[in-house]
Amino acid sequence: MIRQTFLFATIMALVTPVASALEEPSWELLETVGPVELRRYAPSIEARTALASNGESSGGFQRLAGYIFGGNESGEKIAMTAPVAETLEGDNPVMSFTMPSAYDMTQLPEPNSSDITLHETPERIVAALSFSGWATSGKVARYQRQLLATLDDNGISAKSAPILHQYNPPWTPPFMRRNEVVVEVRLD
To answer: Which residues form the signal peptide (predicted)?
Structure first.
C-alpha cells in the first residue's frame, strides 16, 4: 500500500505541473446550459495540419510538434500550448495547436513542412462539454451526441462540426485527463 501511495504521489507531482503550466486559449464563460459551457474565445492563431483520416492523431501530432520544436525557417522553439484540437467529422480532418498569445502572424516563423499552415482564428462563441479519461472513439461519440442534443433542446444552433480538445500529455493517468467536445455556435 505504501508503494502504491508513493507511486501515485510521484505521478501527481510529475503530471500536474506539466499540464497546468501550458498556456490555453483565452475565453470567458457566458453561461452554462446543463453540463455545457457557452464560452467566448478571444482571437488566436493556430498551426494546422491535415490528417489522413479521422482518428489519425499521431502523424498529425508529430508534424505539429516538429514545427514548434524547431521545424521552421528560423529553427525557433515555440512553447507547447493546450489543447490539441482535432476535427471529428467531415472529409478533411484537421489537427491544430493554438500558438502562444505572445505571437502575432508576423512573428511566427514559417513551417519547414508544406503540410503545416498558420491560420488566424477570429473571436467566436463555442459550446463545450468536458469529460475525463481516455478520449476513445466511443466515448467521444457519446459526448458529441450529448453536446449536440443539449444545444438542440435549448434552441442553440451549431455553426461548425464538433472538435475534440485534449489537454494532457499521453502519460497522464486517465482519471486526471481533461478532454472536451466543442462546437462553434450561433447565439441569437
So the answer is: 1-21
